[in-house]
Amino acid sequence: MRLLWFALLTGCAAYQPGSFNDGQPFGGQRLTLGCIDLAIERRVDLTDAAVLDYQFGNRCTTPAPIDLASVVVVGRTRGGQERRLAPYDPDRQLQTLQLDGRRSGREAIAYPSKEWLAQLCVDAGSLVQATTPQWACVGEVMP
Amino acid sequence: MRRVLAFVIVLAARPALAGPTCDGGSDDTSSFSDSDDDDHRSTEPACIETSDVHGYRTCTPFGKWGRSARWPSLFVSAGTAMRRFASPMSTTDSTVTHDGESFRYRVTRPERAALDTAIVAQVRAGIGLRHGFYGAIELEAGGLADGSTNPEMMSSGVLGTPEIRAAGVAVLGGAIALGARLRSGVLDAGLEGVAGVRTLVYQYESHYLACETTTSITATTPVFEARGRAALWLTPFISLGVTAGRSLVDDAWITGLHLGASTRAFGGR
Prior knowledge:
The complex is a heterodimer of chains A (about 140) and B (about 270).
Chain A: H1 2-12, E1 29-33, E2 36-42, E3 49-58, E4 64-67, E5 72-77, E6 82-85, E7 96-99, E8 104-112, E9 117-123, H2 124-127, E10 135-139
Antiparallel strand pairs in A: 1-2, 2-3, 3-8, 4-7, 5-6, 5-9, 9-10
Chain B: H1 2-13, E1 53-54, H2 67-70, E2 74-85, E3 92-98, E4 101-108, E5 116-128, E6 133-146, E7 150-153, E8 163-184, E9 187-208, E10 211-235, E11 238-247, E12 253-262
Antiparallel strand pairs in B: 2-5, 2-12, 3-4, 4-7, 5-6, 6-8, 8-9, 9-10, 10-11, 11-12
């Protein structure tokens, strides 16, 4: 019975392809990469890390990979220097997961940096394990 | 838990020909009961998140959104069906007991409709396999809409003969289904084979002086059916469907309507 309720509730919340909305609109830069509708938004930085909000919905009816463990993120300092950033993952939980068909999800990932980063650029292609890179850049957010 | 187990044991121990007497039945479950079970409740405080950023949050693990893809494709459905089948009841003798006195009665089936009609509620749960194949367990319960039987007393007691009359027929069933389905857009169609049992519980009320009791006769038959199913996906996870099938061993048939839900979009592959 619990499963029936689960299915009924989730059925009402099926992701609609191209909507960039799973009950809450996806904020930030929007891209479509294969089966995945993706939005990347930069949040107000933590004291020692920049934070990116990833929101994604699966347009297809079959599962598609979301690889937040190896997504390539590059930070640009105000001086124009580039820094390759690694996600803050103290318990090593990040891994490639399959996003089920017509499902959506969101994750906020922190990228520690000792320098103030004016811009973060994400290879969205690496997030969905695409063969060709697709860069999306987001500027800093004032508190 | 022990109460549930005791209830199941008592149910299982009931004879097929049930005949409660008037001398006051005891609550058999009381001797099994244990009041201090299952009453413990966790008193741990709920986890409160202070951040939703991975690595900083404490309550929600990474990748909750990916959980459903790790499960197999599961589905449930609930609906109603009409069944037509030959009555399993032939002329049958049984007994009913009043105050320790046993009376024999005979049940005969009127010569009229070739098939009885039953209306049942059905629930099923299943798992999607590869290449469109699936397996499911199905349960149903309902009543006979027509096709009652005629009981008559065959013996008398020292104070006369009880009056007996039919009091409805319950239909219970359980089956497993194996099938295959194909989807085109929002339409789904499939064929399946079903094997199970159907039990009819013919209930009778008997009156003997001031004593009133019920008795029943149970008839169980195997069910082997071939069915076709078609469904329209109302959302990627909810479907509305119809079923039609025919028995592989006699003239019985079934039609039904069901509402289904799946953990995978459009039931998965």
